Structure to design on (648 residues):
């Protein structure tokens, strides 16, 4: 597809995005080669591989990868494909091993990815096959960020924190302990399922599409939150009822919906179904306030780190990866998080809440999946494709001088989605990393 | 505590020894026919969307559990294949309150994942009674295993087939038979469906 074609598909100034990018197979193939081989992707969490030899098979784009901790304790991410004939060297979801043995011709690889065993090495390869050059294909860069593991195939990609930019403190809210200590989360389970919709519907949903709230009316009517049995409606406690909500588009394509508590930053009663939990979370709130001071006013809601990693910051809490399967099919993975040292009772309550809220069996997210499916399906037609999606909400309603950085809106906005697709178009044009990080946008603003 | 462990062991043994656990007497077949009848009625309630009546045949202390099935190495299946009830994340690990909420949600008429309602048929087969407490002459609690095939057609073109096993504890009470525990083993690893809006 011609490079400038992508600017026609994504018209940020007028607020239109072509349906083609959600259904077209050529666009999809180019996404796999231009977006998913360059951007930083979340592949898992260190708590899934606590011991030397532990592995967890994951995905990057359409491809299977192995997240592995080697015998020395170092973490690696490898393409899950034998260098000889490509067979998957690991078809278990997780486990502990000293070797990955290819079932096809029995080449074996150590946990640091090195080719070790080649049957009949001396006879058939004259004992000279270059083992080093036939190691499992490793990602170019890997970063352990507060336990979450990120990787990219692009050796020229900026380091992860540069890539994350000002979105960092928002992602932190999902990864840090509830009482404000850094990191300390663990994954208590992973949901994996396939749904017939383009992956960008899911990514965009978590960018801060607060506008889709009415689609969750059924669950809000019945009440499933942590105070539901005590009579509160809604799908979660409204911990942000006094907060100023903020919607932020970051130049790297990330977007978040967070909130700033008012000056007093008082605890809002929550978890009323269980007095022990109420006390525990109240304690965490006060501890966090003491520990972080002014910074404790920032609380998370949701966000997407470009391109396909999303998070839910508090109720429920976890990381999502939206793995592309085809133009109209996505494999959703949800990693559910708790504080590793949370009381058993809190962990047990949270996992039950996560199950009734999230994923394909979750009462809230079932309705999301329904929307993504039929929005995708109804956009495949010849006539439908002539009419782009409308992204004209809250045009221009943002500031660029807010303390939180990026483009900050104080009202529900599609500015985040516009930013996401604008950056997506940069990747599709094979733009350099300066542009992918938004440097040109910042320069332009500075010039203005 | 000790008694509980022993009770659990008994159930495990009964399951492990399969058909030999209970003698195939006329009383057994009579009870099995009753169990099949109970499941056919339950399927009717669900397929005819009589969700509130379905809730009535669940014990108030029901444990409704669907683990996630994992691909694990040979020899690790007993320990690691299925996620465990009471720990971590599964597809369902629910009590009656949550199941009632699910019914309430469908009945709001705006639960879009079930609006319009799906067409669903439950088929139940391979019913076997694996344990009877205290005994066949005066049964008050049964361990029953079965297979299910659940067909869902949604709106126009969406169809899903869910096949698997159910391991039930059925309590026989004065107000009828009640499902006290249900373990649902869906024969899938990655869920090959966008949603689990149905009851199993």
């Amino acid at each position: 597809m011609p490079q400038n074609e992508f600017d026609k598909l994504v018209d940020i100034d007028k607020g239109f995005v072509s349906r083609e990018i959600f259904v077209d197979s050529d666009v999809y193939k180019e996404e796999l080669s231009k977006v998913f081989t360059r951007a930083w992707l979340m592949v898992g969490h260190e708590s899934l591989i606590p011991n030397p030899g532990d592995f967890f098979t994951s995905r990057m784009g359409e491809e299977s990868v192995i997240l592995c901790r080697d015998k020395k304790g170092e973490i690696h991410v490898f393409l899950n494909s034998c260098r000889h004939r490509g067979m998957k060297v690991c078809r278990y979801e997780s486990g502990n091993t000293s070797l990955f043995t290819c079932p096809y011709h029995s080449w074996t690889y150590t946990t640091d990815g090195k080719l070790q065993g080649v049957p009949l090495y001396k006879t058939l390869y004259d004992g000279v096959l270059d083992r080093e050059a036939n190691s499992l294909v490793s990602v170019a860069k890997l970063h352990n960020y507060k336990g979450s593991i990120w990787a990219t195939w692009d050796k020229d990609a900026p380091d992860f924190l540069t890539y994350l930019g000002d979105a960092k403190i928002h992602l932190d809210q999902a990864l840090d302990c509830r009482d404000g200590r850094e990191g300390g989360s663990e994954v208590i389970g992973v949901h994996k399922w396939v749904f017939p919709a383009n992956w960008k519907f899911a990514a965009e949903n978590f960018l801060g599409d607060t506008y889709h709230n009415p689609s969750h009316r059924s669950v809000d009517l019945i009440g499933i939150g942590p105070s539901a049995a005590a009579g509160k409606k809604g799908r979660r406690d409204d911990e942000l009822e006094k907060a100023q909500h903020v919607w932020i588009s970051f130049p790297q394509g990330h977007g978040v919906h967070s909130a700033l508590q008012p000056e007093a930053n008082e605890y809002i009663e929550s978890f009323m179904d269980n007095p022990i939990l109420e006390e525990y979370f109240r304690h965490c709130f006060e501890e966090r306030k003491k520990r972080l001071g002014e910074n404790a006013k920032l609380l998370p809601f949701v966000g997407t780190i470009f391109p396909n990693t999303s998070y839910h910051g508090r109720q429920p809490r976890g990381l999502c990866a939206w793995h592309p399967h085809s133009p109209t099919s996505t494999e959703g993975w949800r990693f559910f998080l708790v504080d590793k040292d949370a009381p058993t009772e809190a962990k047990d309550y949270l996992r039950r809440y996560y199950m009734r809220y999230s994923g394909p069996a979750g009462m809230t997210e079932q309705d999301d999946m329904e929307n993504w499916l039929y929005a995708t399906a109804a956009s495949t037609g010849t006539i439908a494709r002539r009419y782009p999606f409308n992204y004209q909400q809250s045009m221009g309603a943002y500031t660029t001088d807010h303390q939180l950085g990026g483009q900050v809106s104080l009202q529900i906005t599609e500015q985040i989605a516009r930013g996401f697709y604008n950056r997506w178009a940069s990747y599709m044009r094979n733009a350099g990393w300066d542009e992918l990080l938004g440097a040109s946008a910042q320069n332009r603003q500075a010039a203005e | 505590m000790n008694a509980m462990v022993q009770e659990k062991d008994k159930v495990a043994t009964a399951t492990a020894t399969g058909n030999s656990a209970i003698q195939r007497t006329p009383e057994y077949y009579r009870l099995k026919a009753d169990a099949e009848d109970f499941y056919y009625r339950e399927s009717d309630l669900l397929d005819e969307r009589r969700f509130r009546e379905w809730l009535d045949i669940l014990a108030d202390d029901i444990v409704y559990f669907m683990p996630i099935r994992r691909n694990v190495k040979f020899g690790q299946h007993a320990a690691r294949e299925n996620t465990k009830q009471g720990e971590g994340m599964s597809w369902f690990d629910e009590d009656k309150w949550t199941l009632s909420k699910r019914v309430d949600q469908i009945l709001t008429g705006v639960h879009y994942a079930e609006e319009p309602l799906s067409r669903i048929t439950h088929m139940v087969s391979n019913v076997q009674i694996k344990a009877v407490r205290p005994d066949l002459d005066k049964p008050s609690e049964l361990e029953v295993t079965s297979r299910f095939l659940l067909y869902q057609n949604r709106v126009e073109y969406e169809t899903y087939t869910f096949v698997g096993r159910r391991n039930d504890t059925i309590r026989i009470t004065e107000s009828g038979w009640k499902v006290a525990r249900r373990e649902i083993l869906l024969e899938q690893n990655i869920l090959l469906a966008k949603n689990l809006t149905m009851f199993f």
Q: What stands out?
A: Residues 275-292 of chain A form the longest helix (18 residues).
